[in-house]
Design goal:
46% of the residues lie in helices and 18% in strands. Helix 1 (9-18) packs parallel to helix 7 (153-190) and helix 10 (299-307) crosses helix 11. The strands form three sheets. The protein has a six-stranded antiparallel beta sheet with strand order 6-5-12-11-10-9. It has three domains: 9-177, Transcription factor LuxR-like, autoinducer-binding domain (Beta-Lactamase); 192-293, PAS domain (Beta-Lactamase, 2-Layer Sandwich), CATH 3.30.450; 295-368, Orthogonal Bundle (Arc Repressor Mutant, subunit A). It is elongated, with a radius of gyration of 27 Å. The chain has helices at residues 9-18, 23-33, 60-69, 78-88, 98-104, 112-120, 153-190, 209-217, 236-244, 299-307, 311-321, 326-333, 337-351, 356-367, and strands at 38-44, 52-55, 124-133, 136-144, 194-198, 204-207, 221-223, 226-228, 231-232, 251-256, 265-271, 285-290.
């Protein structure tokens, strides 16, 4: 009988580290060579910027259902419970399997997750931790149905061989993701632009030398890895939160005050193109600092996002700020004076102001 040749796990998983879209193929190869229906790479932990759950041959709706069910706690999830039990004892990365699950299942607070695993066909399998760090845990697993049966010692040895390569690959990908922020900062450094590079948690990954000067001058405060500064219409921290929120903004701008008699600085933030998933260290947004400029392009859209102004209301607000008379605005827009008054009233209401002077103060940091 011809002996089955084991794959080159280093080649398979290192390729995934360099080209993250290949992780599904790597996990599928691991699953097939261990006689399992599914391979899984999962990131958990509150500090990890982008939790992820990659499972081969598994519907996205099932992953979403799991995430919404609150079964990540060790009180409900036998896989997490088995892992936590070993971590508490100082064993951080053993290969855990069905025998370990059997030990913790009787102590679960609920059988809901166990029943769900039976229902969708993943009651068996094995797992190990690839990374345990300040960001949380990255785990590798194979998930098996009743037909696959419990893992055998030989299958667990194959899994352990794959896991060693996967652990190196995850560490490499984390390093590469972290270096992207430095490379991006270096590109802006070359053209002497003040830039802060932010991750998906809103924390500072890298910044240029001129941005460092803003920190040293006290114009921008750095607390831990978070930056902030008072500003209008948004504080810097609020602008960053708008960029990192799931339903947030792709582009923000606000003006921060500076120390002494120096003029204010416009902080303009841009959300970077999203990738399907990340281990957690990719740049998410950039904040560019510059002098205020009277750029009107895109302002009405920004006012729409920030204050829920309609396009017409945003256009009227900009025209008022530019000093145009109400008669001129009504003529330019082809509306009656009465209609314009109603629109201006709505602008005041949405912006939380009660006068044209208030509108001037509101728009000055953006358009001044």
């Amino acid at each position: 009988m011809e002996r089955r040749t084991e794959p080159d796990w280093d080649e398979i998983f290192m390729h995934a580290a360099l080209q993250p879209d290949a992780w599904f193929d790597a996990l599928d190869t691991l699953a097939r060579h261990t006689g399992s229906s599914h391979g899984q790479l999962i990131g958990v932990g509150g500090a990890r910027e982008i939790p992820f759950n990659l499972v081969t041959n598994f519907g996205a709706e099932l992953i979403d259902f799991f995430a919404d069910s609150g079964w990540a706690a060790d009180t409900h999830n036998f896989r997490v419970a088995a892992s936590n039990r070993h971590i508490e004892r100082g064993f951080y990365d053993p290969v855990l399997h069905e025998a370990h699950y059997d030990e913790v299942i009787p102590a679960l607070a609920s059988a809901d997750y166990l029943d769900w695993c039976e229902e969708i066909g993943i009651p068996f399998g094995c797992q190990t931790n690839l990374v345990i760090d300040d960001f949380g845990i990255v785990g590798l697993a194979t998930l098996r149905n009743r037909a696959d049966g419990r893992t055998t010692p030989a299958q667990r040895r194959t899994f352990a061989d794959g896991a060693r390569a996967a652990r190196r690959a995850v560490r490499l990908q984390e390093k590469l993701e972290g270096e992207q922020a430095k490379l991006l900062a270096g590109a802006f450094e070359a053209i002497n632009v003040s830039v802060f590079i932010i991750d998906a948690r809103g924390q500072l990954l890298a910044h240029t030398a001129s941005a460092e000067a803003m920190l040293e001058a006290g114009d921008v405060r750095l607390t831990g890895r978070s930056i902030d500064a008072p500003g209008a219409p948004l504080a810097l921290r609020q602008a960053i939160q708008a960029l990192i929120a799931d339903d947030g903004l792709d582009h923000v701008h606000t003006r921060i005050a500076t120390r002494g008699d120096r003029p204010g600085v416009m902080m303009e933030g841009f959300r970077l193109p999203a990738r399907d998933w990340s281990l957690g260290s990719l740049p998410h947004a950039i904040i560019v600092a510059g002098r205020p400029r009277r750029d009107r392009a895109g302002v009405t859209h920004y006012l729409s996002l920030l204050y829920r102004l309609s396009p017409a209301e945003g256009d009227i607000a900009v025209r008022l700020f530019e000093g145009k008379s109400r008669i001129r605005i009504a003529e330019d827009r082809g509306v009656t004076a009465e209609t314009l008054r109603g629109q201006i009233k709505q602008i005041y209401l949405k912006c939380g102001i009660d006068s044209e002077a208030g509108l001037m103060r509101l728009l000055a940091p953006i358009l001044g």
